[in-house]
Amino acid sequence: MDVRTVNDPSTTYTEADWNPDTWEGCQANPMTAYCGSKKFAEKTAWDFLEANKDVLKFKLATVNPVYVFGPQKFDEDVTEHLNTSCEVVNGLLHSSADVPVNNQIRGQYIDVRDVSKAHLLAFQKENTIGKRLGLSVESFVCQDVVDILNEDFPTLKGKLPTGDRKAADAIAFSSFDTSESKKILGFKFRTLRETVDDMTTQILKKEGRL
Predict the structure, then answer these.
(1) Of which family is this protein a member (predicted)?
(2) Contact between 178 and 15 (Cβ < 8 Å)
(3) Average pLDDT, consecutive stretches of 10 residues, N- to C-terminus, the chain (210 residues)
(4) Which of 9, 26, 171, 182 has the fewest CB atoms inside 10 Å of its own CB, making it the most exposed?
(5) Pick from 78, 85, 80: which is nearest to 205 by CA?
(6) How is the chain classified by DSSP, letter by letter?
(7) Rounded to an integer, what is the distance from CA 126 to the centroid of its chain?
């Protein structure tokens, strides 16, 4: 991801794109450092493979997910605060009706169970060798999550923000075309509704509200 173009609706990233930041440039602030860390970790792996290809006996594929949502592996792993990606949904679930919906939190998403399956297939399938696999279903803004919570969980209605659907629809930003990865992996990713519903059900059950 290039932080300079991430909010540009004319920009479409693909699996072929790399963050253009240099090591020095990534020292600018925590966000560029975070994004850069992912680039340099992956690039080091590819460079190591290239430099030692005559002696190495393993092959490489990398899996690059976007925001990873979804239920925790075990119910006991549900806590008041979750990891950064899942906290997007968890925070909205625990907000109140008078809180504005922050659509500045936006991007692309993928379900954690689909990320797990992609890692497994990367080991099992020959056509993944040497590939950078981008994992994304589609774009989202927080309004999309709020709409699902209000529509699919009647007991929460009136307790959660409703936001502004019209304003949310006017928000435009970059996209991530992962059609090549989807073709290689060969399975259908879960929708945002499936992911949010499963995640919310688990949380509400753990909290004794369902």
Answers:
(1) Belongs to the NAD(P)-dependent epimerase/dehydratase family. Dihydroflavonol-4-reductase subfamily.
(2) yes
(3) 86 96 92 93 98 96 98 96 97 97 97 98 97 98 98 96 97 97 98 98 96
(4) 9
(5) 78
(6) --TTTTT-TT-EE-TT------TTGGGSSHHHHHHHHHHHHHHHHHHHHHHTTTT------EEEESEEE---SSGGG--SS--HHHHHHHHHHT--TTSPP-TTSEEEEEEHHHHHHHHHHHHH-GGGTT-EEEE---EEEHHHHHHHHHHH-GGGTTTS----HHHHHT----EE--HHHHHHH-SPPPPHHHHHHHHHHHHHHHTT--
(7) 25
> What span, in angstroms and rounded, lies between the C-alpha atoms of 145 and 143?
5
Question: Alpha-carbon distance 181 to 78, whole Å?
Answer: 31
CA–CA distance, 122 with 116 (Å, rounded to integer): 10
Residue pair 112/44 in contact by the 8 Å Cβ criterion: no
Residues marked active site are found at 38
Question: What number of residues does the chain have?
Answer: 210
Write down the pTM of the prediction.
Answer: 0.95
CATH architecture assigned to 12-18+57-207: 3-Layer(aba) Sandwich (3.40)
Maximal C-alpha separation, the chain:
63
CA distances in angstroms from 29 to 6, 24, 34, 66, 185, listed in the order given: 16, 11, 9, 20, 35
Q: Which residues contact 123 (CB under 8 A, 6 or more apart)?
A: none
| The predicted structure's pLDDT at residue 3 | 75
